[in-house]
Amino acid sequence: MGGSQRDLELADEWQQADEAEVDVGFERRERALAMADHGLRLDKLLTLLAPEFSRNHLQGLVEAGHVRVDGVTSSTSSRKLKAGQTVVVTLVPPAESLAFTPQAMNLDVVYEDAHLLVVNKPAGLVVHPAAGNWSGTLLNGLLARDPAAAQLPRAGIVHRLDKDTSGLMVVGRSLQAVTALMRDIAARTVKRRYMALAHGDVGRADFTVDGPVGRDPAVRVRMAVIPQGKPARTDVMPVAYRDGVSAVRCALHTGRTHQIRVHLAHQGHPLVADAVYGGRHLLGMTRQALHAVELGFAHPVGGEMLAFECPPPDDFASAWAAVAIG
Hints:
By secondary structure, the protein is an alpha+beta fold. It is built from 7 helices and 15 strands. Helix 2 packs across helix 3.
């Protein structure tokens, strides 16, 4: 092993990284290269050391600094190895493996019984793990709060709110409840009402947007009203208009992805601060101005009607007051 200052610095970084990785319990595997290994690419050797991982993931470990050759971090997957060298890899699992890991978090629980709970989801919290958000989601929090949720589909989640939408959600706590709630959502008997702030004057009369929603063929990260989309219907009830912004209440008849955001943008009234659909930051809002304010449904086991209302968080409440009051 060379004795340059940089080599010594890398060796020190290696030791520090090893200590950190051991602390969190990641497995390390080591191999002293024999003559038969001479000339192998580093990523090829790693597939022999850890065949349960994909080659792409192992290459990612190299790029992230989790592989050392003779004590020095190696960042080149294609480097050729020599007999007598020692390779050590720290097997940091793929991010998606954290998707169903319990993670303690403070959940604002509005109501709870043996079969369901109603939560007030804050803006910024992702509901279900997906690419880019494999941990820190509501699902992770539900698993930590109630280990029995691991036995339920999606930990009991029966509908979703967008990451930056705040407000009420119902979650099943028993298989009977999950099944009944999903049935009622499909039958459109669950009442869901929202408060929203939209650009422009939507008028004074209530109106309905009835337009199929599907993936935008031009911009794949967006949804759009397109003929081949799924049926979607939103009732819009104007509350007030001031300085280029309309305060509205919306009722969902269907629950398509981004439905209210898409329907209002389709009408030429994107939500305030909804950059994905053309909204601009106004009134202190830095996330889409949408809050799930009311939720009503029949108890999935007892049958009694339940109704909940949750005031919006401070950012939305302040923006709403600037339009709807005064």
